Amino acid sequence: MTKFHEFPQDFKGKVAIITGASSGIGQAVAEAIANYGAHTIFISRSGAEAITSQLNAAGKSALSLPCDVTDETQVKQAIASVFERYGRIDILINNAAINQIAKIEDISLEDWNRVIATNLTSLFLCCKYAVPIMKQQRSGNIINVSSIAGHFRSKISGIHYVASKAGVVGFTRQLAYELAPFQINVNAICPSQTYTPMLAATLPPEAEQKLIDSIPLGRIASMEEQVNVILFLASHLSSYMTGAIVDVNGGQF
Ligand SMILES: NC(=O)c1ccc[n+]([C@@H]2O[C@H](COP(=O)([O-])OP(=O)(O)OC[C@H]3O[C@@H](n4cnc5c(N)ncnc54)[C@H](O)[C@@H]3O)[C@@H](O)[C@H]2O)c1
């Protein structure tokens, strides 16, 4: 299991949902939050049994909930089952996404719709069903994972990915405004290239050094460097932040 630094936090007893938690940044942040004492729900298409079993064996509270975040019926059921089991939702981290490298003329309408559905419509669905619960509590914390691609542009990804991540930025600012009267904070992070399975699948090895040379900090991010900022946004340390779009990109603009 991934090791994490000490982090000032107040996650004990909170109920946290993380989408795309069977891999990469999503799994790492879910592991961290579970380790800090939250009831942590790992949402992914195929389930995350291996990691949740390990966490539960170590005395943590982790639940693997298989769910395709593009499917409204599945999302509605997943959120309802979390509410039924734990009676509240404190933290929702919308992290699941897919990527594809292709030029516009090679992207089919099916590809476009799949990427938009996974990377943007899924946020609408998860928030649509989690927000009424948070409104009733008059508290909640939503963190959306966008990308440097959505805040600026991409050196790697297709235009559908970039458009979906730009959509996440607008979605975050508007939802933050809509939910502020209910003391529900909504923020986004915009990671740049980070060593995860997604990057391994999209960055050709011969392009890695050129990319590193173009990053002011001179290196590709580790997963922990993204996780730490998500943890900050999910904790009380960021309680006066809402509608913020936080760049975690090694100084790239
Ligand atoms: N790795 C990078 O370089 C990088 C850079 C910028 C932004 N990001 C963003 O960070 C987030 C995490 O990326 P990662 O690199 O860890 O990716 P990853 O591919 O390792 O993990 C993505 C997760 O999303 C899940 N997922 C995909 N479609 C789903 C669906 N329909 N329903 C449920 N789960 C689904 C996958 O199963 C997987 O668990 C994504 O939003 C990504 O766009 C990553």
TrEMBL record:
Species lineage, top-down?
Bacteria, Bacillati, Cyanobacteriota, Cyanophyceae, Pseudanabaenales
**By what name is this protein known?**
SDR family oxidoreductase
Occurrences of domain Ketoreductase (ranges): 14-151
Q: Which Gene3D superfamilies match?
A: NAD(P)-binding Rossmann-like Domain
Q: What is the similarity comment for this entry?
A: Belongs to the short-chain dehydrogenases/reductases (SDR) family.
- Which InterPro entries has this protein been placed in? KR_dom, NAD(P)-bd_dom_sf, Sc_DH/Rdtase_CS, SDR, SDR_fam
Pfam families the UniProt entry points to = adh_short_C2
PROSITE patterns, sorted = ADH_SHORT
